[in-house]
Amino acid sequence: MFAIRFRLSTNPSSLVGALENLSLISTKQILATRQFSAAPASKDGREVVTYLGLNNLSDNPGAVKRGRRVGRGIGSSKGKTCGRGHKGQKARAGGGVSPLFEGGQTKFYKRIPKRGFKNNHAEAMVPLNVGTLQDYIDMGRLTPPSGDEDPLTMKDLVDAGVTKRSAVKYGIKLLGKGKERLRTPVKIEISRASEGAIKAVEAVGGEITTVHYNRLALRALLKPEKFDIIPKRARPPPKLMQYYTDDDKRGYLSSKVELKKVKDRLTNSSN
């Protein structure tokens, strides 16, 4: 351990020169850390210099305003009632006027008419974009079927981590976002699909079929270990029959899909 003692000098450059001679610090480093004080210069004309260090790091003067403490005596200007006044709704603990209160007149949200409604019977589908599908294929977490292999199902998507199993209450809907990234032919069965998603999948040589799963069949698909005998899939209810028999929706009950199944069955039997 050793210490170096410098003689006090009115010329800052002498201190810089001494440090340079000792090879402890360069002139540029010293000048880069110099901060000129805002205090007025001394009477003898000497320059007041403050060096930046961990001991003088602080906010600029006036940058942080201290909050006024209340209830600490009348001399603090916020004692006694703490600026709340005497009695009244605003003086009580937890009291105050709602931002929606308009002095007693009819509130704004009651003056305007209602619009739309929330359908309590709607079957909320989990959205899935074709771009996300391609991302999981690129990561190797999804393997698209080839040839006569079974198509990808919602169980394959859940097992790959595309979505949580607990989130799939009624099914998954395929959407067309990210279709410019889709380049792998995919054969998939899913609950719903948008028009853009169908075009994107078929444009790269894939195949998509929309399939209806009721709650029991969907649970059996996602959790087959819970069943000794897998129940059969129920047919769509009347309000969904039109969707799953539509060729444009690629419904599994449509004539186009049924005809393809017959052709595939005949081809396999002939082979």
UniProtKB/TrEMBL annotation:
Pfam families from the UniProt entry: Ribosomal_L27A
Superkingdom as given in the UniProt entry: Eukaryota
Sequence ranges of Basic residues compositional bias: 81-90
GO molecular function per UniProt: structural constituent of ribosome
InterPro entries for this protein: Ribosomal_uL15, Ribosomal_uL15/eL18, Ribosomal_uL15/eL18_sf, Ribosomal_uL15_bac-type
Coiled coil location: none
Entry keyword set: Ribonucleoprotein, Ribosomal protein
PANTHER family: 50S RIBOSOMAL PROTEIN L15 (PTHR12934), LARGE RIBOSOMAL SUBUNIT PROTEIN UL15M (PTHR12934:SF11)
Family label: Belongs to the universal ribosomal protein uL15 family.
Protein name as it appears in the record: Large ribosomal subunit protein uL15/eL18 domain-containing protein
Organism per entry: Chaetoceros debilis
